[in-house]
Amino acid sequence: MPEVIIVGGGMVGLSLSLMLAKAKINVKLLEAIKYPTEHDQKLLEYHSRFDARNSALSRRSISIYQQLGLWTVLQQYATPILEVQITEQGSFGHATLRAQEEQVESFGQVIENAWLGRVLLKEVRQSEYIELIDGVEVTALTQNESSVCVTAVRAEQAMPFEAPLVIAADGRDSKCRQLLGVSASHHDYEQVALVTTVQTSKPHQQVGFERFSPLGPLALLPLPGDYRRSVVWPVKKGEQEQWLGEVNDDHFLAALQHAYGDRAGRFEKTAPRFCYPLSQVLADKQAIGRVVLMGNAAHTLHPVAGQGFNLCLRDADVLVRYLTTHLKNHEDIGTPSLLQAYEKARRKDQQRVIKFCDSVVKGFSNNHPVLKLARNVGLLAFDRIPGVKPLVANYAMGLKV
Ligand SMILES: Cc1cc2nc3c(=O)[nH]c(=O)nc-3n(C[C@H](O)[C@H](O)[C@H](O)COP(=O)(O)OP(=O)(O)OC[C@H]3O[C@@H](n4cnc5c(N)ncnc54)[C@H](O)[C@@H]3O)c2cc1C
């Protein structure tokens, strides 16, 4: 069987390796960070890659993990979203999406990244098809008609690798993208996402909130444990310091209380806040000869609608289908025309999601009275016009693709 090299063992690289392994395709996974070993499993909870964030997984993403046989383990630290309430602070508009009304079990599940990463890494380590080479940084990449050569460096020692196909899942600032000379459009939202876990006095009852406040769109999602909720709150760049550190816990809880009123009851406790600068980065090309850009290396989005990772998983799923079909016909899996066909096939879904996330951020970040009114009317209409809600619900669940 041919071998595929994946550069980057973040959540996308790890998931993709397992999808390829399931199709019995050999993978060499090159990751810059030295991951903790089996014996250090506890350390993974605090690992910089599988951090304090939580991911809202769409139903399609869940079905991908089900097919990999991982969902039973993953769901131990996941919570279903049965209802989503969308409101704007100081305004009359609101919208509610209920899973029951849309005749689905849930809109998806919120999972702790620390747990997801831990499960994926353990599975990767156990797979006979995957060789994880961590603690190595890819510094060079060249390709010819039949293969791609990658150089990875560990402690100043260069290691050469070669394969008919390389998948670059090396994140927003992708080194591979630069080495390939692929340009990318960058848009800085001038925002930083504050991410943390809070405890409220009212149980969450599997309800998620998206609240548009003057400080930014604030997401409050249910977590395992009836009173724990995940917070993602984008604030203006440069203004994050006032919310960080234990000394500002009360200040932060008071701000959440002010933004939410008593919908969630009292905001009683908060974990430390972590910061993520927010930008949109879109590669101009994703299939370059025998190399494909994947995950954040291909498209990094604003997390406002929790779509980024879900989109990456759909890309990975489609790519694996293309590769397996090609392999059945005993054809070369790095064929540039095959990779271009994959890129073309993914364009529509990617563009819809990119546009959706960007317009939600921009549409709700403006306090002009006319726009505010339009938003209110929009939210009300969204709540009342038949057919609109199921459409958006299906879309958010990743089913309509
Ligand atoms: C605050 C926040 C909340 C989010 N919430 C959601 C959500 O609810 N739902 C959702 O769908 N999405 C969400 N996302 C988006 C999601 O986090 C990303 O889509 C996902 O993390 C992308 O993963 P990745 O593996 O592509 O990139 P990364 O996590 O950046 O991983 C890249 C990997 O490549 C490695 N690497 C880099 N350079 C090299 C090199 N030269 N050699 C070798 N290895 C290298 C890095 O060490 C890293 O491990 C959120 C994002 C943010 C910021």
UniProtKB/TrEMBL annotation:
Single annotated GO MF: 2-octaprenyl-6-methoxyphenol hydroxylase activity
Any GO BP annotation: ubiquinone biosynthetic process
Alphabetical keyword list: FAD, Flavoprotein, Monooxygenase, Oxidoreductase
Pathway annotation from the record: Cofactor biosynthesis; ubiquinone biosynthesis
Domain FAD-binding: residue ranges: 3-356
Keyword Phosphoprotein (UniProt): no
Needed co-factor(s): FAD
Gene3D superfamilies from the UniProt entry: FAD/NAD(P)-binding domain (3.50.50.60)
Any Pfam family hit: FAD_binding_3
Protein family: Belongs to the UbiH/COQ6 family.
Protein name in the entry: 2-octaprenyl-6-methoxyphenol hydroxylase
Species annotation: Acinetobacter boissieri
